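Subject — a protein and its fold
Encoding — discrete vocabulary of local shapes:
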Amino acid sequence: MDPLKNEFLIRLHVSMEDYSFVKLTLGHAIHSKAPVRKLMFRPVKIRGERCCAIVSRFLNRDQTANTTFPEALAMIESKLGVEFLNGHLFTETEEIQLLLGAGNRKSRLHTVPTHRVSASMGHDRIKSRRVDPHSGYLVALGVTDSMGKIRQSDKFRQIERFVDLLDSAFRESDLVCKTEDTKMLTICDMGCGKGYLTFAAYDFFQRLAKLPIQVTGVEARPELVRLCNRVANEFGFERLHFLQSAIENFPLPSLNILVALHACDTATDDALAAGIQAGASIILVAPCCQKEIRPQVNDSTASSPLKDVLRHGIFAERHAEMVTDSLRALLMERAGYKVRVCEFVAPEHTAKNIMIIATRRSEKPGSTVSYDRRISELKSFYGIRHHRLQQLLMAGCELGGAGQITGPVFEL
């Protein structure tokens, strides 16, 4: 057994024995197509008996089961290093993270002293929120009132979900190790609008993650830039700034995390290309108004096996959206990122509910021949002649950025 894994399990066992155990998460699934993406453990009391609740997180649902602590410990030992590479243990006095090595990478164990309240033992515990509804910026932006009552429930759910996905992507990325030496974490939100999510990202990393953070919001509308800068100054967010610029014209420097939610049509492609050029470890985008492919799909219907599907406008539009984002995912994978596509918020809250989450792989990309073939086949099937992101990557992401990549990302 890996000695660091053994030490991690010993400390977990001790925390379960002395009642200091708060929670544990197993993440970073080894197999990309594994149905369970994450396992979460916490203590509960059921009919007076102390048990361990286990939440299995699938792509679109969670499943909960209860077991004894010895059984939970045996389950963790059997899956850590076999199904999951990361273990994150929270006790009342410390936070311990195990990062098991894959390939030539060495395993790492990180410990941070903390002071936590004992874990809630209630089976139906009060929901803890990473986004505090009493936060001043939420009041100033009209999401909540001065008493913390939520005024825009859909917007608040979107903010909560975004922070959850951002935290998950951060823990799966190489940034977890890079931030240990207190280097400044840099984030850019391109097309940030009124800044709801920009403020939430800054607040999360500064208040909860306790990390030094520098956040820039980029927005083309000057009135929103003025509003956001005023709110940031009012609440003392010293390293949060908003600048006026279109996405394609913004000189993006090297950074750690890029966010672009609901950037319209090919502005999403501009943001993705800029993020790659800037060497971002994490890229999160929620595409919107995918119009570029729509007329090309329509033109291809005459000889397509899907002609009786695509002749209906609503079906053609949905196909165009799926193909656009599928090509984006393939192109990001080809550029060296691990990509997953998930539901951002429930469709009853917004029709634009897809999130593309890309984390840069630590190992260098291997052969790209397979990706080239798959991209070509998908474009050929739908009669697609041009795709903005592909063109930008082939041109070397010439968006005015001063990133780490020089020359074309790839050529076809």
